């Protein structure tokens, strides 16, 4: 299929597909599209996030079965072929002949790339070398200065896995203190860049050349909905994606409320009361059924992420053993136990 058709068909299974590069789309069209359609016929949804034990076991079985079919004598040779240059040609031929991509992903409803990374994490002996010493951390910083994000090269120099050195460097470079002016500017520029890029792609066919030249007018929702935070994290360079998202939400909230303190004093009490009442009235069974956009008006003119963060703090601070309760049980507790207390306090 052509690139546009592949992207359109993949969007049914991967909502953020429009943010994926053309080269990755081509690979997914070959490795994943047929599999995804097969899973759909079986009523199985495509998964992301943490791998379950059942999926890990399936990866073990798939790798062991492929090794027995091909006669390759170790999972490391199969998954990290470049470490064995003398056997590389033979191993790659066997992979092609026996459909390695298909066999590795068998029975696992996830993108092939994620399955491959997980298999690497499970079978790479360099993944189990314990904590990094101070000397290793200094080496990692030095190698990164020399080779940038060439994690394959750095992993070979340090005898650690690609994933391990990349994650450790990410941890080393992250700043946990207050945001500097420079970091905040980088965040603003990064968000602006990804939003402009997305809107220009969306409007490329509908805008005339003269309209393309003028500044794009951005709908407010696009300033905080479904932003590619891992991409923004990479552009900022010194913060995790979650920190970037929280900081951006704070910046937007301050702009939208003109700096008013919506969640302090009596206004804060009233906002909590309104939030609990509205959630109770919605009668939803889980958080996925909540219209957070609608709820943002309960507190004020704020992004939905702000409301979600306030609800999280409310349940953590007010609901005992909230981790063991269902969403509806948490709402019932807040309505029956916490609401009267807040109203009396107000």
From TrEMBL:
GO terms for biological process: termination of RNA polymerase I transcription. GO terms for cellular component: nucleolus. InterPro entries: Homeodomain-like_sf (IPR009057), Myb_dom (IPR017930), SANT/Myb (IPR001005), TTF1-like (IPR053078). Residues 124-161 form the HTH myb-type domain. One of its GO terms (molecular function) is chromatin binding. Residues 124-169, 171-252 form the Myb-like domain. SUPFAM superfamilies: Homeodomain-like. It holds the Pfam family Myb_DNA-bind_6. SMART domains: SANT (SM00717). PANTHER family: TRANSCRIPTION TERMINATION FACTOR 1. This is TTF1 factor. It comes from Cochlearius cochlearius (Boat-billed heron).
């Amino acid at each position: 299929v052509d690139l546009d058709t592949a992207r359109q068909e993949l969007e049914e299974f991967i909502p953020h597909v429009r943010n994926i590069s053309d080269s990755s789309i081509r690979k997914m069209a070959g490795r994943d599209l047929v599999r995804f359609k097969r899973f759909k016929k079986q009523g199985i949804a495509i998964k992301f996030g943490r791998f379950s034990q059942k999926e890990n076991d399936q990866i073990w079985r798939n790798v062991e079965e492929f090794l027995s079919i091909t006669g390759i004598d170790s999972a490391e040779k199969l998954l990290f072929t470049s470490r064995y240059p003398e056997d590389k040609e033979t191993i790659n031929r066997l992979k092609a002949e026996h459909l390695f991509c298909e066999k590795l992903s068998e029975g696992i409803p996830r993108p092939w790339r994620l399955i491959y990374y997980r298999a690497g994490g499970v079978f790479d002996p360099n993944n189990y070398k314990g904590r990094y010493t101070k000397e290793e951390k200094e080496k990692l910083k030095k190698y990164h200065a020399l080779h940038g994000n060439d994690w394959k090269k750095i992993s070979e120099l340090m005898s650690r896995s690609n994933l391990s050195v990349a994650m450790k460097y990410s941890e080393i470079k992250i700043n946990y203190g207050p945001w500097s002016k420079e970091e905040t500017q980088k965040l603003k520029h990064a968000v602006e860049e990804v939003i402009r890029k997305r809107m220009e792609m969306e409007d490329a066919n509908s805008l005339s050349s003269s309209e393309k030249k003028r500044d794009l007018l951005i709908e407010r929702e696009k300033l905080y909905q479904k932003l590619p935070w891992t991409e923004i994290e990479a552009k900022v360079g010194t913060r995790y994606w979650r920190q970037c998202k929280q900081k951006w939400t704070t910046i937007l909230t301050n702009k939208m409320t003109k700096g008013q303190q919506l969640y302090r004093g009596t206004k804060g009490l009233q906002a909590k009361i309104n939030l609990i009442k509205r959630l109770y009235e919605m009668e939803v069974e889980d958080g996925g059924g909540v219209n957070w956009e609608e709820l943002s008006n309960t507190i004020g003119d704020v992004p939905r992420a702000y409301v979600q963060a306030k609800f999280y703090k409310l349940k953590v601070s007010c609901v005992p053993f909230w981790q063991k309760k269902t969403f509806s049980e948490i709402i019932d507790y807040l309505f029956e136990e916490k609401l009267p207390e807040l109203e009396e306090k107000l």
